[in-house]
Amino acid sequence: MVKISIIAAIGKNRELGKDNKLLWNIPEDFKRFKELTSGHIVIMGRKTYESLPEKFKPLPNRINIVVTRNNQFTILARSYKDSNSQVLICNSLEAAIQKAKSYKLQVTSFEVFIIGGASIYGQGIKYADKLYLTLVNKEYPEADAFFPEYGEFRNLKLVGEGVEGNLRYKFVEILKKY
């Protein structure tokens, strides 16, 4: 069985970022992201892929699926530092999810992570069974990208919290109510 999850960090008003960049730097959030998504399939939009630092393209130890409507988009073949990293390109989120579900992993049950950006989150929220959110306790009026409403998710579980500089944050997991 395939479980579809979304992982994101959001501000008090569901802010994601500005100009295709995060509005905060929380090392513990990056660590959590890596721990949760390593060994899994991650689905992201083209702009999110392009915003990754070169040293993390593709995200190591993951199958990276990039969604783009741009038929000219290609990812240059290069020797990956990590032989467990792959990049696939799909022209829609639905095609990416189907590709992920059909992928032959060495397990019978696995989790696929939708990792952004805003448009992909907006399209993907209806497919998600679970949200892994980092809730940053600050408002960002300059934000130009927002996480979708997620009122259909319940059963919030606090799994951690911390402070980075002047930022307070919480790690939560929320299940979709059925």
TrEMBL record:
Broad EC category: oxidoreductase
Domain of life: Bacteria
Stored InterPro entries: DHFR (IPR012259), DHFR-like_dom_sf (IPR024072), DHFR_dom (IPR001796)
GO molecular function terms attached to this record: dihydrofolate reductase activity; kinase activity; NADP binding
Protein name: Dihydrofolate reductase
One Pfam family matching this protein: DHFR_1
Organism: Candidatus Roizmanbacteria bacterium CG11_big_fil_rev_8_21_14_0_20_37_16
Its job: Key enzyme in folate metabolism. Catalyzes an essential reaction for de novo glycine and purine synthesis, and for DNA precursor synthesis.
Keyword field contains Kinase: yes
Family under the similarity heading: Belongs to the dihydrofolate reductase family.
Pathway membership: Cofactor biosynthesis; tetrahydrofolate biosynthesis; 5,6,7,8-tetrahydrofolate from 7,8-dihydrofolate: step 1/1
Record domain DHFR: where: 3-178
Assigned EC number: 1.5.1.3
Keyword NADP: yes
UniProt keyword terms in alphabetical order: Kinase, NADP, One-carbon metabolism, Oxidoreductase, Transferase
PANTHER family for the chain: DIHYDROFOLATE REDUCTASE
Catalysed transformations (reactions): (6S)-5,6,7,8-tetrahydrofolate + NADP(+) = 7,8-dihydrofolate + NADPH + H(+)
GO biological process: dihydrofolate metabolic process; folic acid metabolic process; one-carbon metabolic process; tetrahydrofolate biosynthetic process
